[in-house]
Amino acid sequence: MADLATDAVVDPANWTCPAPLRDQPVVVMGHGGGGALSAELIEQVFAPAYGNPTLAALTDSAVLDLAGTRLAFSTDSYVVRPLFFPGGSLGDLAVNGTVNDLAMSGARPAFLSTAFVLEEGVEISVVGRVAQAIGAAARAAGVTVATGDTKVVEAGHGDGVYVTTAGVGLVPDGVDIRPQRARPGDAVLVSGPIGLHGVAVMSVREGLEFGVEIASDTAPLAGLVAAMLAVTPDLHVLRDPTRGGLGASLNEIARASGTGVRLDERAVPVPDEVRSACGFLGLDPLYVANEGRLVAFVPAEHAEAVLAAMRSHPQGTGAARIGTCVADHPGMVVAATGLGGTRVVDLPLGEQLPRIC
Amino acid sequence: MKYIDEFNDPELARRLLDEIRATATRPWALMEVCGGQTHSIIRHGIDQLLPDEVELIHGPGCPVCVTPLDVIDKALEIAARPEVIFCSFGDMLRVPGTDRDLFRVKGEGGDVRVVYSPLDALDLARRNPDREVVFFAIGFETTAPANAMAVHQARRLGVGNFSLLVSHVRVPPAIEAIMTAPDCRVQGFLAAGHVCSVMGTAEYPDLADRHRVPIVVTGFEPLDILEGIRRAVRQLERGEHLVENAYPRAVREQGNPAALRMLQEVFEVTDRNWRGIGRIPASGWRLSDAYRPYDAEHRFDVTGIRTEEPAVCRAGEVLQGLIKPTECEAFGTACTPRTPLGATMVSSEGACAAYYLYRRMTDGPARQGSRIPQTEVNPVG
């Protein structure tokens, strides 16, 4: 199942709790944070209601067998504020997010739909800028926007512009990429520096200045995935660590496959500006959102070749091996700290909150 | 911006650890005062790397954890009022009060907002003249000057709809209280660098002398903490009890004179209750008489608060360094970040949260340290 809600960055102007009390009877922002609460909502509300084997895989895109053709299918809603930020916009996210969800099953994305929910009073020029961004991002990703829809809600009932995209793509023969396929011994690779998108959005949303402009990493990843598949079709798992960050994605894979992940903390590429901003705010870069990165579980014998292919692709120049899939501590992610200690990297509850001092 | 990596250098860390190992000839118990230090220690696994002779005891320096329950309940009551915009730092909002937290108040319609600075709250007050804006002013000497500045500005600008709910605490009286408790095992302190960057170190020599304990001011990066431990152990082995500054890049003996002036202009020293610990004389700040109109407790009638701590929660003993979080029966079972019984499990600086987040392992738990004798919860001071 694809993402259900918001881009996860703390919003002081409209704060919501990341760790509600368990008997909380209403939806809170943490339910859209990509962490434990999101998983709980899917597992306890949506999956039982829809109940079918396809959905039960709980992957970013469903792989469907349609008259002998394997089709990847995904949908996602985008409600980011502000609509435009360094390195990207709502339109870029709406295309790249769905393209990447398709790519994470190894598919070649082909067609998208876009559905706009507009709030009464929003300037047409703003809608136009979002549409232009969608068109440009679709061309860059090599997908066609084939259908769409528009609704308007009364002023005060929305947040300017919401966009939902759905997409389909073809999965090549012999490709079977799912979180359940992680195996002990797999190399864990990441395609580049983490945390840039989350920090970029936060910097403009809160008016925080970090000395250098931090741009979102939003980008389509289908080309990178194709380059990796050219080395071997036997990629076990791909995941784009969006809401909840790398920490949440690794936990989801560990849980789905019943394996453990041993993370080498020093090998995780964290840009200095992200590290500094997170240090300042009391956030952990492992849980900050990305929009143009993937994490891959690759059989050890292919790891070096796949890594080399990633590094020679424009979207993977900063690729790194960050850990190993292990049989120990099944379902858990454990990091070796830079100093030689160890720590658990847990599934975040919801969103991170800035600390007091 | 390379400074963070420099203070994480594994080779330098190994050298410091070797030196600590070579220096420590018998068991020593050191307390890191600040919750930020605790998290750094647990997150980086520093306690796992230390020789058995050196035990770290986690101190009471988590501002969220020590804010008394009655103040939290007052915050909840004020925040629920329709005329109020209630502002706070992020990690205060999920701390459980007697029967709810600020998050619940928001869910029930209260206007509760996270701000990064008290000046943001003041700005909200200026932009919403028909509302009452209340800022939850908690924390140690680190956050107090900025909060003092906000209320000072409010008076200067004639902003009448702004007030502070104050629960500021001071570190030196807490050290005094810990050292005078009958079951105290602490032999040396790692003092919190950010507190000293404001207050300087003038209050510490007398404490070190009277209790014959080394006090080493440290920062929060792994090498800062290891260097602090190295110096404290060296002093203990030599029989010394000096105040040392191992954080000179941020701390000067005289502190920050401008911040100190602001504190003294707006606040005055008062006795304070510490959650889980008890009343400590002269351990807090309150608004001085001139600023009393900006005191939310004065402005809103919040008397008649009745509080009740969960009986099973042993956060008070954790805060006093009497037990490790994992020794609490509720740890990781009845009490988790999802179902917190005490503030130490929800605060980003809480010791219980640190152990839960970083040490809840199945493949080799952390060295638990020597068992600390159990005692009754003993309000210090």
How would you sum up this structure, described in words?
Chain B: This is Hydrogenase formation protein HypD. The complex is a heterodimer of chains A (about 350) and B (about 375). Chain A is built from nine helices and 14 strands. Chain A has helices at about 35-50, 55, 90-105, 125-140, 195-205, 220-230, 245-255, 270-280, 300-310; strands at about 60-65, 70-80, 85, 90, 110-120, 145-155, 160-170, 185-190, 235-240, 260-265, 295-300, 320-325, 335, 340-345. In chain A, the strands form three sheets. In chain A, strands 9-11-8-12-10-13-14 form a seven-stranded mixed beta sheet. Chain A has a five-stranded mixed beta sheet with strand order 1-2-7-5-6, with helices on one face. In chain A, helix 3 (about 90-105) packs parallel to helix 4. The two termini of chain A are about 40 Å apart. The termini of chain B are far apart. In chain B, helix 7 (about 100-105) links the parallel strand 3 and strand 4 (about 110-115). The radius of gyration of chain B is 21 Å and the shape is globular. The longest helix of chain B is centred in the middle third of the chain and has 17 residues, at about 220-240.
Rg of chain A is 19 Å
Whole-number mean pLDDT of chain B: 88
Shape label of chain A = globular
Approximately what portion of the residues of chain A adopt beta-strand conformation?
A: 15-25%
Morphology of chain B: globular
